[in-house]
């Protein structure tokens, strides 16, 4: 039905679905902060698991729908392109957080560990692409390892958050993870959790609509799957991460902002696992092209730069933002330029 719409209606549906995802994500950010306080989960872990997973759901639907339709490049580029642009969002948030470098103020061991875990998870698909073409029931062993590694990493992240073996140096600009004064930590958590789950379902439905419109762009206008996946659907489905990051920074929940991006990116690696299951023509890692591998490398490079910034904890840099934020902008701009202008 969506495939047959005229171009104005197609763009209208695309914009409406994106607007719904953004609006719902604003409310989800507030609820994630409430749930973090009432369950004593902590902002970093809540951002990484609850908020990161919820805001990534629309992107999951896009990648899985593309993989089920046989378009491996679209599924993979949507996933890894989303990781790159979401990392860029932290640089944008750093621009708006004028007081001090965001990565300095949001010092948190759990965020550092999740960044390391993200690099590990991003390295596994490269092994699947470069290694032998092995698949059991259409699923690569790499996907199984990634899924188990993610579960183990979440468990370890919780341990790091609850009982850290080291703590960052406290400065006057360090933002501690403390419950909001207006949020009673002993209040019931059931109602906000149910509302949060309902919002997640809405984001999933909007993601399906976005995937259908993205497929229409590919077939109707002859655009490459990697371009649509990395620069159109990935950006649209990643807007919740931008909104939730900016809202969290404005609320002063800096660990939630950084943890939401890193945790969301970590969850986004599961796009590849779910897409591999949905892709029925063999291992999805063996079906992608060089452009998809390029975006995967870009995501790894940007994550490594972010991790370096979190460890360095520079107070001020160019234009009062961290040097890592400047580098993130440069790397992403170069990646987009290569996607748009490099010869096939």
Automatic annotation (TrEMBL):
Xref: Gene3D superfamilies: NCX, central ion-binding region
Q: Sodium/calcium exchanger membrane region domain spans which residues?
A: 10-152, 193-338
The keyword Transmembrane helix is assigned to this record? yes
Pfam families reported in the protein's UniProt record = Na_Ca_ex
Q: What is this protein called?
A: Cation:H+ antiporter
Write out the ranges of the annotated region (Disordered). 167-186
Per the record, the major location class is membrane
Q: Where in the cell is it found?
A: Membrane
Q: Where is the composition biased (Basic and acidic residues)?
A: 169-178
Can you name a GO cellular component term? membrane
Provide this UniProt record's keywords sorted from A to Z: Membrane, Transmembrane, Transmembrane helix
Q: What transmembrane ranges does the database entry give?
A: 6-24, 45-68, 74-97, 109-128, 134-153, 193-215, 227-249, 256-274, 294-312, 321-342
Task: Give the record's membrane topology.
Answer: Multi-pass membrane protein
Which superkingdom heads the taxonomic lineage of this protein's source? Bacteria
Any one GO biological process: transmembrane transport
Q: Which organism is it from?
A: Salipiger thiooxidans
């Amino acid at each position: 039905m969506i495939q047959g719409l005229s171009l104005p209606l197609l763009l209208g549906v695309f914009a409406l679905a994106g607007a719904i995802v953004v609006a719902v994500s604003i409310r989800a950010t507030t609820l994630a902060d409430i749930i973090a306080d009432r369950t004593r989960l902590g902002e970093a872990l809540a951002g990484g698991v609850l908020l990161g997973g919820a805001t990534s759901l629309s992107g999951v639907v896009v990648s899985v729908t593309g993989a089920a339709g046989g378009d491996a490049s679209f599924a993979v580029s949507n996933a890894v392109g989303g990781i790159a642009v979401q990392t860029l969002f932290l640089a944008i948030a750093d621009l708006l957080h004028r007081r001090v470098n965001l990565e300095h103020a949001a010092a948190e061991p759990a965020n550092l560990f999740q960044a390391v875990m993200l690099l590990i998870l991003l390295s596994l698909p490269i092994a699947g692409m470069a290694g032998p073409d092995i698949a059991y029931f259409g699923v690569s062993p790499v996907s199984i390892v990634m899924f188990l590694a993610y579960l183990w990493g979440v468990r370890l992240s919780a341990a790091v958050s609850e009982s850290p073996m080291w703590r960052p140096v406290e400065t006057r600009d360090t933002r501690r993870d403390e419950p909001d004064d207006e949020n009673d930590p002993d209040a019931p958590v059931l109602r906000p959790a149910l509302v949060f789950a309902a919002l997640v379902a809405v984001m999933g439905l909007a993601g399906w609509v976005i995937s259908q419109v993205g497929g229409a762009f590919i077939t109707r206008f002859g655009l490459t799957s990697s371009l649509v996946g990395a620069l159109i659907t990935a950006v649209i489905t990643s807007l919740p991460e931008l909104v939730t990051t900016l809202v969290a920074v404005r609320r002063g929940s800096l660990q939630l902002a950084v943890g939401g991006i890193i945790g969301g990116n970590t969850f986004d690696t599961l796009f590849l696992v779910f897409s591999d299951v949905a892709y029925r023509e063999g291992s999805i890692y063996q079906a992608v092209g060089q452009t998809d591998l390029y975006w995967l490398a870009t995501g790894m490079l940007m994550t490594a730069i972010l991790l370096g910034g979190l460890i360095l904890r520079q107070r001020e840099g160019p234009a009062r933002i961290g040097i890592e934020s400047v580098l993130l902008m440069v790397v992403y701009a170069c990646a987009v330029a290569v996607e748009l202008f490099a010869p096939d």
